Amino acid sequence: xxxxxxxxxxxxxxxxxxxxxxxxxxxxxxxxxxxxxxxxxxxxxxxxxxxxxxxxxxxxxxxxxxxxxxxxxxxxxxxxxxxxxxxx
Length: 88
Prior knowledge:
Elements (H helix, E strand, L loop, with lengths): L3 H4 L3 H15 L8 H4 L13 E4 L3 E6 L12 E6 L7
Antiparallel strand pairs: 1-2, 2-3
């Protein structure tokens, strides 16, 4: 098994970009906590998913059912390009 640190040099940057995209995708306004928006992140702080896929120019962050929200919310995928992380 590979860890996220094995895939990305700057994990904090990946987390920052992914969180921004997640909030945008889920339409969570600034100042609204994840709990208030219906998500179950540990300590109400954004975390990267257990599953991260790698493409030629993109990372696919995949949250399974129940990982961060109810089953009814379904899975969530966030795409972060290597260009967004200044990796090319």
